[in-house]
Write a structure and sequence with these properties.
Layout: H1 6-13, E1 19-25, E2 31-41, E3 46-50, H2 58-65, E4 68-77, E5 81-94, E6 100-111, E7 121-125
Antiparallel strand pairs: 1-2, 1-4, 2-3, 3-6, 4-5, 5-6, 6-7
Length: about 130
């Protein structure tokens, strides 16, 4: 069973959302945020981040060293209906078969997905 609700899974699987923003922790303790591509892995129930030469990036090195991450996947429907999902958790820097960052959810916060009411959030802690 997934940590994500059915509505969140539908949102994550929607083909129109291609970009997310990944936050990692640098060696100096400062946050680093970068736009990334993503996919939900239904078998592992993780958010996977890929990209060209990912293993050469700061975000990959940050994850390999620290493992704390947050990712936001969002959009806005007209005229003004923001919606999205934030996933906080631990991540692994996976090298094979191709480099990727695999995020294991510990906290999920969504808005505009479970309810059309602006400002209403659906937040919960989950066990990985």
């Amino acid at each position: 069973m997934s940590h994500f609700t059915n509505a969140e899974l539908e949102y994550l699987g929607g083909g129109e959302r291609r970009l997310a923003r990944l936050a990692t922790v640098g060696t100096d303790g400062m946050p680093h945020v970068a736009p990334v591509g993503f996919a939900h892995d239904p078998d592992a129930d993780t958010i996977d981040i890929g990209g060209h030469h990912l293993e050469r990036t700061k975000k990959y090195r940050d994850v390999r060293r620290d493992g704390r991450v947050a990712v936001v996947i969002d959009d806005v429907l007209p005229p003004w209906r923001p919606r999205g999902i934030e996933v906080r958790g631990r991540a692994d820097a996976v090298g094979e078969p191709e480099p990727r960052i695999r995020i294991h959810p510990e906290r999920i916060i969504s808005w505009g997905i479970e309810s059309d009411e602006i400002g209403r959030h659906h937040a919960r802690d989950v066990t990985a």
